[in-house]
């Protein structure tokens, strides 16, 4: 049966994208609605066999979300399929049909260039030949693909399909950082829309500290609003309960004193340098814990409801999870709240059937990259960014469109 263009509802489109092995959040209709607020318009297209699916429904074999960015003066546009197409790249018939339909819709919306960056590994034997044989060329990534491509091709992705195995593979330091947060009065919250204000305040602190600009609060609110109905987004916060921290510190002092008494008794019976070091370490631990208690009590009086130290926005699409944004306070960084936050997000996501946790692109920030590496990620490279000219005679306008695209 010949392939034809299909008219899918938003839900049908999103269900196909979520269930497809090449599906991605950026190919869902909520992502299109979110991008409306930053100047893009969007359309969806799909192809398949009419009436060939279960119960006489249509069999969908390919779909795409197309974003359009108009030039400021001329009636022309860049057509962009972020992380698309959603198709089996070995199925030439479906690729041809989908490209034909995407090109038709793009031209109808004044598209001059069509740009895509499939969520497919670079070592996939089908994707690059399929694109190059159909007139696409690899967009030159320049010296730093993470900066010049819309979506970085190099990713850091952790397999969370077996958290027991992952926990064993984590370094001792990472496991200790998670436990430290749990023992220090940190509280994890899956906050939803109500957490945007606290998250945004942390985002402003992070931007100032690390020297980057941040999006408006309305951007994050819109992102949560369009994805919340599908349960595809999680706003997470970690706060320090100073009262609980003081109580835990007092309990730790009590427990350590008991260990110290035993260590001193053992040293009297079996004197040694090792016994001296053990006693000194326990005494130092007690001194540090006792020193921290007044500070926690004073902070509890100032922040009776706790103090937010870290926040993040995490999104899912089928079995894929993406760590979109993260922020942290300048205070109490020694408690490493981000470690507890990521671990709890992983646990909740895995419970919903998510199998991969994408930390995002490999970037130039040594501290951020080092944090990502603590989670035993795989260095994953996608096929990259490809461009096809839809209107060859508009050659001089192509460069203009690219510049507009880079300023998205």
TrEMBL record:
InterPro entries the UniProt entry points to: Acyl_CoA_acyltransferase (IPR016181), FEMABX (IPR003447), PG_Glycine_Bridge_Synth (IPR050644)
Keywords carried by this UniProt record: Acyltransferase, Cell shape, Cell wall biogenesis/degradation, Coiled coil, Peptidoglycan synthesis, Transferase
Annotated signal sequence range: none
Coiled-coil ranges from the UniProt annotation: 246-292
GO molecular-function terms, A-Z: aminoacyltransferase activity
SUPFAM superfamilies hit by this protein: Acyl-CoA N-acyltransferases (Nat) (SSF55729)
GO biological process, one term: peptidoglycan biosynthetic process
Protein name: Lipid II:glycine glycyltransferase
Superkingdom of origin: Bacteria
Organism: Knoellia flava
Family note: Belongs to the FemABX family.
């Amino acid at each position: 049966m010949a392939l034809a263009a299909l008219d899918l509802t938003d839900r049908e489109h999103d269900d196909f994208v979520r269930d497809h092995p090449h599906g991605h959040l950026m190919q869902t209709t909520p992502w299109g609605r979110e991008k409306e607020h930053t100047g893009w318009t969007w359309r969806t297209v799909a192809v398949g066999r009419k009436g060939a699916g279960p119960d006489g429904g249509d069999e969908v074999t390919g779909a795409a979300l197309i974003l359009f960015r108009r030039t400021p003066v001329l009636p022309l546009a860049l057509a962009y399929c972020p992380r698309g197409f959603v198709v089996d790249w070995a199925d030439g018939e479906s690729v041809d049909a989908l490209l034909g339909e995407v090109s038709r819709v793009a031209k109808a919306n004044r598209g001059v260039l069509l740009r895509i960056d499939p969520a497919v590994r670079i070592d996939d034997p089908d994707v690059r030949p399929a694109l190059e044989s159909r007139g696409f060329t690899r967009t030159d990534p320049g010296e730093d693909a993470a900066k010049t491509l819309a979506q970085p091709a190099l990713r850091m992705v952790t397999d969370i399909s077996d958290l027991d195995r992952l926990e064993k593979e984590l370094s001792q330091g990472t496991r200790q950082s998670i436990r430290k947060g749990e023992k220090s009065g940190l509280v994890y919250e899956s906050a939803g829309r109500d957490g945007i204000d606290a998250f945004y305040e942390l985002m402003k602190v992070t931007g100032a500290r690390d020297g980057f600009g941040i999006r408006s609060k309305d951007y994050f609110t819109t992102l949560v609003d369009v994805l919340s109905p599908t349960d595809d987004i999680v706003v997470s916060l970690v706060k320090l309960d100073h009262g609980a921290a003081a109580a835990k510190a007092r309990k730790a002092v009590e427990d350590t004193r008991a260990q110290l008494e035993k260590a001193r008794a053992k040293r009297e019976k079996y004197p040694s340098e090792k016994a001296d070091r053990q006693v000194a370490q326990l005494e130092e631990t007690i001194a540090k814990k006792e020193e921290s208690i007044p500070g926690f009590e004073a902070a509890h009086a100032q922040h009776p409801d706790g103090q937010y130290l870290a926040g993040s926005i995490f999104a899912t699409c089928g079995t894929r999870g993406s760590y979109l944004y993260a922020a942290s306070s300048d205070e109490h960084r020694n408690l490493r709240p981000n470690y507890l936050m990521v671990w709890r997000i992983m646990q909740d996501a895995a419970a919903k059937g998510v199998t991969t946790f994408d930390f995002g692109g490999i970037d130039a920030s040594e501290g951020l990259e080092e944090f990502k590496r603590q989670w035993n990620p795989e260095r994953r490279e996608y096929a990259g960014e490809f461009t096809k000219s839809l209107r060859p005679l508009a050659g001089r306008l192509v460069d203009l469109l690219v510049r507009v695209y880079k300023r998205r």
